[in-house]
């Protein structure tokens, strides 16, 4: 039997407390009637046209995304606006949209960073930047590999367990460097480099690393870096969240994970995998 949307929301909020979200974030219900029944839920990283297409094609009643559709304040959602168009399409299809963002990043045990650490095989993980109010919660995770790996082998492991993307996995550091202790942060985690160093991490895996901080990190005795696609770093949370929701609602709703790749990069030219030579362009 379907359950009211409000019960689905209550189950999600119990796992991913909205109070954990950053003050600038926009989490919760974007559109949908709390009294309407929900029979099928689709989890995705991004609320894009491709994901909305999939939701409508599969008769989904609720789309749960990690990234917000409307992160900055808006005064309207007209259908000629790209984001407004998605809201209109969802409403016409009778589908709701719910966002679980930085509250899922900080949530203990079942959040984005725990899922990323788990697929990489880390154990004994703790928050990389614990919250002052509750050290069980916080940004990032740091833990141990089951056995030491070279930086090259660790990067290859990351490429094997994360969704394939055009950008692949980039590493900064000596390829033969031994990696035992690993720090991770799903999404843009370059600000946690100092925390990773303080935690004794041999490598920090995150996304959206910028040139100058990465260059400067290579000049000091700190962690090596692995840069992966933002989408790829957060995708492992989706099947975890979907399974937990199904369990929390005693199987009363069908759950699915979107297979649409919403990484925005679609093509890469030139460089093959592996180390590069000098900086001269190919002729």
List keywords for this structure.
Udp-n-acetylmuramoylalanyl-d-glutamate--2,6- Diaminopimelate Ligase, Chain: A, domain 1, single chain, 2 domains, 5-stranded mixed beta sheet, alpha/beta, DUF34/NIF3_sf, DUF34/NIF3, 10 helices, 13 strands, metal-binding, GTP cyclohydrolase 1 type 2 homolog, 30% helix, 283 residues
Set out the fold topology.
Layout: E1 3-4, H1 5-15, E2 28-31, E3 37-38, E4 40-44, H2 49-57, E5 62-65, H3 82-92, E6 96-99, H4 102-106, H5 112-119, E7 123-130, E8 138-150, H6 151-161, E9 169-172, E10 178-188, H7 193-198, E11 203-207, H8 211-217, E12 224-228, H9 230-234, H10 237-248, E13 254-257
Parallel strand pairs: 4-5, 4-13, 5-6, 10-11, 11-12
Antiparallel strand pairs: 1-3, 2-6, 7-8, 8-10, 9-12
* Strand residue content: 25-35%
Q: What spatial order of strands do you see in the largest sheet?
A: 7-8-10-11-12-9
Overall mean confidence score, pLDDT: 95
- SSE succession: EHEEEHEHEHHEEHEEHEHEHHE
Total count of strands = 13
User: Approximately how much helix is present in the residues?
Assistant: 25-40%
CATH level 1 class label of the largest domain: Alpha Beta
| CATH-defined fold name of the largest domain | Udp-n-acetylmuramoylalanyl-d-glutamate--2,6- Diaminopimelate Ligase, Chain: A, domain 1
| Class based on secondary structure composition and strand pairing | alpha/beta
Write down the domain tally.
Answer: 2
Q: What is the fourth-level CATH superfamily of the largest domain?
A: NIF3 (NGG1p interacting factor 3)-like
Which assembly state applies to the chains in this document? single chain
Sketch the major β-sheet: 6 strands, mixed
The unreliable regions are: none
Q: Tally the helices: what do you get?
A: 10
State the shape.
globular
Q: What's the gyration radius in Å?
A: 20 Å
- End-to-end separation in angstroms reads 64 Å
CATH architecture of the largest domain: 3-Layer(aba) Sandwich
